[in-house]
Amino acid sequence: MTRVVNEPYRREVTGGKGSIFYRTHSYHTKVPPEGVIPMLEHYTDPGDVVLDPFCGSGMIGVACLLAGRRGILSDLSPAAVHIATGHTTKADPAAIKAASTTLLNELADLEQVLYGTTCRHCAASARIEYTVWSDTLECPSCSEQILFWDAARQNDGTLSKTLCCPRCAAEFRKAKARIMDGSPVLVSVACPTCRQREQRPLTLQEQRAATRSRRSDITDWYPTAPLDSWREMWRGQHRDLGIATAADFFTDRNLQALAAVWEGANRSVERSAMRFAVTAIVNRASRRYQWNPKRPTNVLSGTLYIASLTYEFNVFSLLRRKFAAVAKLKQALVDAPGSCTVNQSSATELTGVEDKSVDYVFTDPPFGANIYYSDASFLWEAWLDAFTATDQEAVVSTSLSIEHGRKTLQDYEKLMASSFSEVARILKPGAWASVMFHNSDDAVWSSLERAIESADLSLESAIAFDKSQPSFKGIKQITDQERVSSFDLVLHLRTVAGKSGRRVAKKVVAPVEETTLVAAIGELLATAPPRRRTTPYIHSFVMRLLLERGGPLTGWSYRDVEALLEAHFINNAGTWATQPRDTEEMA
Q1: What span, in angstroms and rounded, lies between the C-alpha atoms of 256 and 228?
Q2: Distances in Å between the alpha carbon of 584 and those of 381, 397, 578, 580, 581?
Q3: Closest among 67, 70, 23, 13 to 364, alpha carbons compared
Q4: Which residues sit opposite 309 in a β-bridge?
Q5: Listed residue (14, 7, 10) closest to 537, CA to CA
Q6: CA 142 to chain CA centroid, nearest Å
Q7: Distance separating alpha carbons of residues 145 and 177, to the nearest angstrom
Q8: What is the pLDDT of residues 68-105, one digit of tens each?
């Protein structure tokens, strides 16, 4: 018999990003599973069924495994299904290690051909760990071909936006120059014999190995899916750099290596785990990884951008580390008491899930136009040779044609309403659903609220979920400062008692007065630690108050909340404090 839970979970949640579950395979958005487990334990008993219809990377499935629940995951995206399956499928760690050793041994000769070099210290055979590539530019003044590496680097190692031509000394911006084929400028070499690791300019032999055309040498399959100009993330840069297909995101050397390891993974006795490891390194092995004088800066989230200085990492070195991480992941799941299944389907049509069969739903749906999942997953899905149906994506994408999935905010609301209706259909009577959401736009919040109401789900409470650092969604739109929310809200919803299919009218309430919000924020600031006195957290706090009190969300965008803070409080190095009393009052 299902346990009746009358009160929502009310404690705020902090989730870290350092666990093996979080770090093994990247994804655009993730919910730390450790942060979800307390809610699973509040709303369900061991053995209960938990559903996530927007499963993404599968972290809710991991939480179910660890907490002894039965997880059902689904997603529209083939990449999400692949990654969620990799995160939640149990396997023998010893078998993973053996399979990875076999694959790497089979390709050892190819690694030597592609990344082998000679140690300058002991003359032994060494390995190139990465090569740094630079754009070649044509100086707008003298037409000389120059390296961005030479024109942009300052004496302290930083990069200047104003470039200087080494030949004519003319100063110009990168946008004014014609971009040409890149060149390798730096190499990092590791020697297993003398244990030396050095970063230096390339030798002539290394230069030739890096720039050699290899496409005709590749006998294994690799993706040639076109990067169409209609995609939201397509930019003129891709045309200028000659990036027409998925293969063009890789140097010829790394493309040959990836094609070989992908073929080996597909032949492996541990095919699923091996493929999971390969897709986990795809973005890092591409040209999207930006060079930084201090450390790699990862790919630029929310784009398919290629910087002027990029890393070409040794694919096999990446894979060695990733195989070890996958084995560690599987080891962590060996004794996990729960179970999990993953399916590919739209959240608007959860085929195979029976009416009133689910004990709890936790999901993290798309946040309006914050991320275009199908574009962001382009390289993964190209290697999987399976692509998201963009016409079914629950995102706002007004720049697209109808043929390619154009959707307005109203279209997004309809898709979310259909998804919430499915949630209401499959939930047991009186069961709960938790929805993680945030957006800086009050119109998107209002759209979500209407979608929830249309499904006869009642909002009972909302709590903050602090992921400890901005997520992909929180990073997007950052300009001179972070004017988006990095704190997600978890909305606790409950199925409405009443006749099935009959919409329950929303209770009419008066707007929440500004003075009420100012007083509530003042109380918060009096006791909150610094991280909870920032604009992102206070915006989440205001949204929570409005939602719980039934007040209209219109007029309370991120910028509106920021303006309210500026009018009534003091900003000190990014945190807010109450206004001090004036001198006379203090006297």
Answers
A1: 23
A2: 66, 55, 17, 11, 8
A3: 13
A4: 134
A5: 14
A6: 42
A7: 10
A8: 999 999 999 999 999 999 999 999 999 999 999 999 99
Q: State the Cα–Cα distance between residues 521 and 568, nearest whole angstrom.
A: 10
Taking Cα atoms as reference points, which of 471, 459, 437, 453 lies closest to residue 366? 437
Q: Which two tokens stand for residue 391?
A: 């016409």
Which single residue is written with the structure tokens 């300019």?
A: 201
Helix (H), strand (E), coil (C) string for 397-456: ECCCCHHHCCECHHHHHHHHHHHHHHHHHHEEEEEEEEEEECCCCHHHHHHHHHHHHHCC
Task: Identify whether the C-beta of residue 26 lies closer than 8 Å to the C-beta of residue 280.
Answer: yes
Q: What is the pTM of this model?
A: 0.92
How many CA atoms lie less than 13 Å away from 581 in the CB half-sphere?
Answer: 5
- Helix, strand, or coil here: 159? strand
Judge whether 175 and 155 are in contact, CB under 8 Å: no
Q: How far apart are CA 231 and CA 404, in angstroms?
A: 8
- Helix or strand holding residue 200 (H, E): strand 197-200
* Amino acid (1-letter code) at residue 199: Q
The pLDDT assigned to 2 comes to: 64
Cβ(190)–Cβ(126) under 8 Å? Answer: yes
Identify the DSSP state of 500. Answer: T
CA dihedral 10, 14, 15, 16 (to 10 degrees): -170
- CA–CA dist 246, 242 (Å, integer): 11
Residues in the chain: 587
Tokens of residue 506, six digits: 């929303």
Mean pLDDT value of segment 432-440: 93
Identify the residue whose tokens are 């009393």.
581
SS3 315: helix
Pairing mode, if any, of strands 171-173 and 162-164? antiparallel
Rounded to an integer, what is the distance from CA 459 to the centroid of its chain? 27
List the structure tokens of 41.
């334990």
Coil, helix or strand at residue 362: strand
Question: How large is the C-alpha radius of gyration of the chain?
Answer: 26
Per-residue pLDDT tens over the stretch 20-72: 999 999 998 889 999 999 999 999 999 999 999 999 999 999 999 999 999 99
Here the tokens at position 544 are 């929570």
